[in-house]
UniProtKB/TrEMBL annotation:
Origin species: Ramlibacter aurantiacus
InterPro entries: EF-Ts_dimer_sf (IPR036402), Transl_elong_EFTs/EF1B (IPR001816), Transl_elong_EFTs/EF1B_dimer (IPR014039), UBA-like_sf (IPR009060)
Gene this protein is translated from: tsf
Molecular functions per Gene Ontology: translation elongation factor activity
Name listed for the protein in its UniProt record: Elongation factor Ts
Sequence similarity: Belongs to the EF-Ts family.
UniProt-listed SUPFAM superfamilies: Elongation factor Ts (EF-Ts), dimerisation domain, UBA-like
């Protein structure tokens, strides 16, 4: 049996908003597995446990650049929110997105080798990054990017600096920009239900199965409950099935059809998504400092 520490309980509570004792029970039942414990809480507590899990802890900005049918979406990370308001950091992030669109680098390492000068640093983007680290006194890095090029038109939407969306479309520009804004607000995972990744469906089915088992319903009714939950989930996370944010009387698919617009794809970046932030065990840290003080006295 894995040891359940206070820091593990605190981390699960921060992710789920569940009561402390429920977090400890779930971790014990899951033998210390954080993901499994989170699923257990979702079964017991419903959707409340999933809401706080979407909170983003890492800092940084998302920048976009579009020039005709060529464009880029880029996430640049830093250590604190303070730096996300630094104009030199923002200028580098904006320039890096433009470099991605113009030069089509293979990866982040190749992006860093592209020619760029700023604030007296250069001659490459990597040199500028290192120079700003020294100047600002905080680590920063380019995490991920996507380049767009082809026959489709592009529209982007940035919600502040933390959420960025690019959609690929043909048709009406206003409709496309509205969809980009919708994606930022509703965060779909795929265009259609058929496009939702199998691993996400399997996870949802697992949660629905556990809920059905706890309900004590007969097997045939439980099976219908499970399938109903999965189908509801698929509609909620597929863009075309979502109620349009500007008019919830129609779906996004219906809005696009009404405006004679075809959506070929979308890319959504949320700053820090998927990054695990270090959770400090404050009590343990204090105890360690006290012990160190005693040993040195």
């Amino acid at each position: 049996m894995a040891a359940i520490t206070a820091s593990m309980v605190a981390e699960l509570r921060a992710k789920t908003d569940a009561p402390m004792m429920e977090c400890k029970k779930a971790l014990t039942e899951a033998d210390g597995n954080m993901d499994k414990a989170e699923e257990i809480l979702r079964v017991k507590l419903g959707n409340k446990a999933g809401k706080a899990a979407a909170r983003i802890t890492a800092e940084g900005v998302v920048t976009a650049f579009i020039d005709g049918s060529t464009g880029a979406l880029l996430e640049t990370n830093c250590e604190t929110d303070f730096v996300t308001k630094n104009e030199s950091f923002l200028a580098m992030a904006r320039a890096a997105a433009e470099l991605v669109a113009q030069h089509n680098p293979d990866d982040v390492a190749a992006l860093g080798q592209l020619p760029y000068e700023q604030d007296g640093f250069g001659p490459t983007l990597e040199d500028v990054r290192k120079g700003l680290i020294g100047k600002i006194g905080e680590n920063m890095s380019f995490r991920r990017f996507k380049r767009f090029a082809g026959d489709a038109r592009l529209a982007s939407y940035l919600h502040g600096t933390r959420i960025g969306v690019v959609v690929e479309y043909t048709g009406d520009e206003v409709a496309a920009k509205d969809v980009a804004m919708h994606v930022a607000a509703m965060k779909p995972v795929a265009l259609t239900s058929a496009d939702v990744p199998a691993e996400l469906i399997d996870k949802e089915r697992s949660v629905a199965t556990a809920k059905a088992q706890e309900s004590g319903k007969p097997a045939d009714i439980a099976a219908k409950m499970i399938e109903g939950s999965v189908q509801k989930y698929l509609k909620e996370v597929s863009l075309f099935n979502q109620p349009f944010v500007k008019n919830d009387k129609q779906t996004v698919e219906q809005m696009l059809k009404a405006t004679d617009t075809t959506l070929k794809g979308f890319t959504l970046y949320v700053v820090g998504e998927g990054i695990e932030k270090k959770v400090d065990d404050f009590a343990a840290e204090v105890a360690a400092q006290v012990a160190a003080a005693k040993s040195s006295s």
